Fold these 3 entries.
Entry 1:
Amino acid sequence: MPFQSPFQSIVADHPAERSAIVEQVLGGLEQDGVVRLPNLFTPDQLSAMQRALNARLTRLRWSNLDGYEKTELYRHMVEDVLTLEQGFVDVALHPII
């Protein structure tokens, strides 16, 4: 069974609470222009995501060697971030995001 954080189960099981959380997030964005999202990951899941991304950021991509791409002086991009760790896919599909 794949991991579900406590927040994910609230969102999936209780549409009314999901709606309230979404309204709270949108209200914060409209008022302040920035909002702190609730915890979407466990510490283990976040650690796995950080390790996967850090491994890619250690070197430039070259030929068939994985790494980051650099199109501007300070812009480092990882094109296939969704393939690195399941957590990246989960956050992309999360209803709050």
Entry 2:
Amino acid sequence: MPEEDFDIFEDDSSNKESEEKRKQRRSRELGDIKKILDIPEGRRFIWRMWGMTGCFKASFTPKDTNYTMFREGQRDIGMALLQDVNLASPYAYAKMKQEYTSELLADKKKESK
């Protein structure tokens, strides 16, 4: 069969297999994130990534469209991570926020002494 006549979407069984592999890969990815979220160090790392990507900040930079677009790209990565965290462990974000807030309060108490 000539190469130009080959259609990768022609064989339904190969598409089905590809879809199954995609589902397995996605399941493994979410399982990896869940494992990371199971340990405090992993939760702190993800929290830092959200801070570095500006996930919860506005991307707009007055008079600098290029920097706005750059920051929006960073933010998009953080938002994708947030979506994966929520899919892997729906209550993880709340737990991480509580841990971060507790850590801030403890640091403030130490500073005031």
Entry 3:
Amino acid sequence: MASLQRTWGKPQVKGDLDAALASHNEAVKLNPNRPMLSSTEPLVWKDKGDLDQAISDYSDALLLNPKEDRALSNRGEVWRLKGDLNRSMTDLDKAISLIRTQL
């Protein structure tokens, strides 16, 4: 499991986004309740240009763990790319608040 989690992003780095999704989906099948896995797939969707799917997947990850600051900050970035600055700032403010409580 750990090696699969470490390697699923390698195809994404090389630009093979479909292979990255396939590797990621395999990792999720092995451990479906791992919030960080759920919050990494949207990175591929964002790279593929499917911003709505990325937002949906980040929202799903946040259902598993509402305190996942990376999912909030990444979703905020996608909202910004879509031009929704209010939702972007809401997510980014929440992420910053969560990070501050961890210090």
